[in-house]
Amino acid sequence: MTIKAILFDLYGTLIDIETDESLEEIYRGIGHFLTYQGIDMRRGEVRERYWEILRRQKRESTEEHPEIDVEGIWNIFLKEAGIRSAPIRKRLALTLTQMFRGISRKRLKLYPGVKEGLDNLRTEYRIGLVSDAQPAFALPEIKTVGLDGYFDPIIISAPHGYRKPDPRMWHEALGQMKLKPAEAVYVGNDMFRDIFGAELAGLKTIFINSNQGAKSFENTVPHFFAGDFGEVLEGIRVLQEHTRR
What is the DSSP letter of 224? Predict the structure, then answer.
């Protein structure tokens, strides 16, 4: 069956990112910001409350591979801190989510050759995204690195409550594209979350060996290994040839 679409992971595959959520500056900055919202809380208490709500959210999930909702965490945080208005909490939760990400972020850039490769691919294939991420982070970061408008659909884990390797992530994308698994290839950098999961969903896979992600997982072998993004294009050509035989 002819390959019609290429689906991509985001972080570690297209975007080279580094974050550190242990930084004291995160919780100090948020604590200072909260004083202007009528909440007096030191950085240690901000940190403890945030991580306690995160752990609670995971415990309450019934999913095998639960995904957190960072905006939801901050919404609960604010409600428990005394912010009663739901519209105000929603607005502040988005602000705190992006503040948390912005202060924790150390690096954000495309891997070499990504934009040129995607420009090449989208002349022939439909391009989609399947990523473990938060919309409040991922959508602005996609725009920041110059990839806004490249992907349709964009499937992000947080609104679903589960994450890769759950096959439903890919099934959602394929359903929106009205394609069968055999008509798509998935490109990712993590052997468990990306390659194992996509193969469970029935897709052919390309593993890209970046500076992030698990390099192996038991009994999991991608259909093509790529050393960099340039080799991804070669992998797609190889897989396309195999489907025509």
Answer: E
